[in-house]
């Protein structure tokens, strides 16, 4: 249960400390009745907009059922693509995210969305409410723009301004608030979209001073985009989503004062633009603006692509488990004939997952898993359950790798990107038979499967699979520890990669003794099925 509750070890402990006072909130007001509103729908792509014209040119050809895609491997290019789409948009921007940071990246994007709304672009911003503490006035100011709307998924109602008081409400209304919207989607003019694992905060774009996340997204045009837009509409119009003004208060501050606060908070000194990009990214692609200015310069990949998501009512505990994104994922990986590569920051297979692994290995399917090491996980409690399956996976012949900042920085390219910061894996990817690529927001853990809503895209493209194998060096993997069984068959060792020494460790790499002792203590007292 503890892993499902907290965003970090410290927050979990804070929440437990607040348990004793959670009853104080039991008598507070719950969610107010949702004000009935007519549904609003996405605006279809049109050749009347520059993005619409570019998408039409990209998808011109005999096979109109295929979409055009380009991978966004590097964080700086992913942020630049968003900014380019916002600035070129003329009809609509639909943005859905789990986390909008109250930092330079989050504020930069808020300012850009506000400016787009003032140009006449319809802006719809849908944010999960878990990380919005202290942001009500910024969101209310954006929503006050004539062409902008902001809605919150499964919102907090009481004492919204502070994380500590939110934790009290969380435990007081645990059954409802433990369900979150983990989806990430960005749609411009109904013609181009970005999907993947990045939230809209500094650490997802290598702009944080401390830990940063290594992630992946896909830029898309073609039939997959209206599929994604319809999913956005389903969430936007669901009864789990509330207009920000219905649950948040400006504390008596008027609209003009809110807008002045917004201007100050999103000014360039507090929300600076990112530095200039190099000419091309790791795969040789120029920034999106250069691509749109000269569509013949870069050949986008043409492929069958489809978007899918959990129902927003998963947050209410409604719906069949056979219809979840996790169920679709397992159906795809179960069809593998030769090879499955899974990249997930949190990996807890559970007994059902282990049965699927046994079945795949019995058919001769090669299975490789890349996940975070204990030292580099932002959810160290996940390792309690992951560790329980590690030996059994290795006995079945699974190739198991754990990401480590120390190992990553032996790769010059990654070292230059991370500088002094830690690098944590956040990408959610699977490659099936080097033919199908599965990507999105879903982790391979119980929270994604049972509690959170998730969004994903499946792409049938050998070319995209090869690009990812190259980008992440998955055929000759570096910057990780390879986990192997020791001769006793019951314990594991970690073998370094990427240098001539390839050090061998008998304990969790780069982790402190205190961390290991804490996790051992929790593993004794927390049941497996409650993590």
Report the principal-axis shape: globular
How many strand units? Answer: 20
Rg estimate, integer Å: 23 Å
Q: Residue share in helices?
A: 25-40%
The average pLDDT is 87
Q: How much strand? A: 15-25%
The span between the termini is: 4 Å
Biggest sheet record = 18 strands, mixed
The number of helices is 21
Strand-pairing-aware structural class: alpha+beta
The poorly predicted ranges are 1-27, 527-531
Key descriptive features of the protein:
alpha+beta; globular; 18-stranded mixed β-sheet; 531 residues; two-stranded parallel ribbon
Short description:
This protein is 36% helix and 20% strand. It is of the alpha+beta class and 531 residues long.
Describe this entry's structure for a reader.
The protein is α+β, with helices and mostly antiparallel strands. The protein is 36% helix and 20% strand. The chain has 21 helices and 20 strands. Helix 16 links the parallel strand 12 and strand 13. The N terminus and C terminus are likely disordered.
Write the layout of secondary structure elements.
Layout: H1 2-5, H2 9-18, H3 23-26, H4 50-58, E1 67-72, H5 75-88, E2 92-97, H6 104-118, E3 122-128, H7 136-143, E4 148-153, H8 163-172, H9 174-177, E5 185-188, E6 192-196, E7 211-214, E8 217-221, H10 224-236, E9 241-243, H11 244-247, H12 255-265, H13 288-293, E10 301-309, H14 325-334, E11 339-343, H15 350-362, E12 366-372, H16 382-395, E13 399-403, H17 405-408, H18 412-418, E14 422-425, E15 429-432, E16 436-440, H19 446-451, E17 455-460, H20 462-471, E18 480-485, E19 492-496, E20 504-505, H21 513-525
Parallel strand pairs: 2-3, 3-4, 7-14, 11-12, 12-13
Antiparallel strand pairs: 1-8, 1-10, 2-5, 4-9, 5-6, 6-8, 10-17, 11-15, 13-18, 15-16, 16-17, 18-19, 19-20
Helix pairs in contact: 2-8, 7-12
């Amino acid at each position: 249960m503890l892993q499902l509750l907290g965003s970090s070890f410290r927050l979990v402990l804070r929440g437990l400390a607040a348990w004793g006072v959670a009853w104080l909130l039991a008598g507070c007001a719950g969610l107010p009745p949702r004000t009935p509103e007519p549904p609003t729908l996405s605006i279809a792509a049109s050749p009347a907009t520059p993005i619409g014209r570019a998408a039409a040119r990209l998808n011109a050809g005999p096979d109109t059922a295929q979409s055009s895609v380009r991978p966004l491997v590097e964080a700086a290019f992913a942020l630049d693509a968003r900014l380019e789409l916002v600035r070129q948009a003329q009809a609509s921007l639909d943005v859905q995210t789990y986390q909008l940071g109250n930092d330079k990246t989050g504020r930069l994007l808020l300012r850009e969305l506000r400016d787009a709304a003032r140009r006449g672009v319809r802006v719809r911003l849908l944010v999960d409410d878990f990380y919005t503490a202290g942001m009500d006035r910024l969101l209310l100011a954006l929503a006050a723009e004539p062409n902008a709307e902001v809605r919150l998924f499964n919102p907090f109602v009481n004492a919204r301004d502070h994380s500590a008081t939110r934790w009290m409400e969380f435990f007081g209304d645990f059954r409802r608030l433990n369900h979150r919207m983990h989806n990430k989607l960005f749609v411009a003019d109904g013609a181009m979209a970005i999907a993947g694992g990045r939230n809209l905060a500094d650490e997802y774009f290598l702009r944080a001073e401390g830990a940063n996340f290594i992630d992946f997204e896909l830029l898309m045009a073609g039939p997959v985009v209206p599929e994604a837009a319809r999913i956005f509409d389903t969430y936007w119009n669901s009864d789990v989503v509330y207009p920000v003004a219905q649950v948040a208060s400006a504390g008596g501050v008027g609209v003009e004062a809110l807008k002045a606060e917004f201007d100050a908070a999103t000014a360039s000194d507090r929300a600076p633009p990112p530095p200039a990009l190099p000419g091309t990214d790791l795969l040789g692609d120029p920034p999106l603006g250069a691509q749109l200015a000269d569509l013949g310069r870069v050949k986008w990949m043409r492929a069958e692509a489809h978007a899918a998501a959990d129902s927003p009512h998963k947050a209410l505990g409604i719906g069949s488990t056979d219809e979840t994104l996790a169920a679709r994922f397992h159906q795809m990986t179960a069809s593998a004939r030769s090879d499955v590569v899974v990249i997930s920051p949190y990996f807890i297979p559970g007994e059902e997952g282990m049965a699927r692994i046994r079945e795949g290995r019995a058919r001769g399917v090669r299975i490789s898993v890349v996940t975070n090491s204990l030292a580099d996980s932002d959810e160290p409690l996940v390792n309690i359950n992951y560790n329980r399956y590690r030996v059994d996976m290795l006995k079945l012949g699974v190739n198991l790798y754990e990401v480590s900042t120390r190992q990553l920085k032996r790769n010059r390219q990654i070292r230059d990107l991370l500088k002094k910061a830690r690098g944590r894996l956040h990408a959610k990817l699977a490659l099936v038979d080097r033919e199908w690529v599965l990507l999105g927001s879903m982790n391979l853990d119980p929270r994604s499967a049972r509690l959170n809503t998730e969004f994903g895209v499946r792409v049938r493209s050998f070319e995209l699979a090869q690009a990812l194998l190259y980008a992440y060096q998955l055929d000759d993997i570096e910057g990780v520890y390879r986990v192997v069984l020791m001769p006793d068959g019951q314990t594991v060792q970690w073998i370094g990669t990427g240098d001539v020494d390839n050090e061998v460790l008998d304990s969790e790499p780069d982790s402190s003794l205190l961390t290991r002792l804490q996790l051992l203590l929790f593993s004794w007292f927390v049941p497996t099925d409650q993590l």
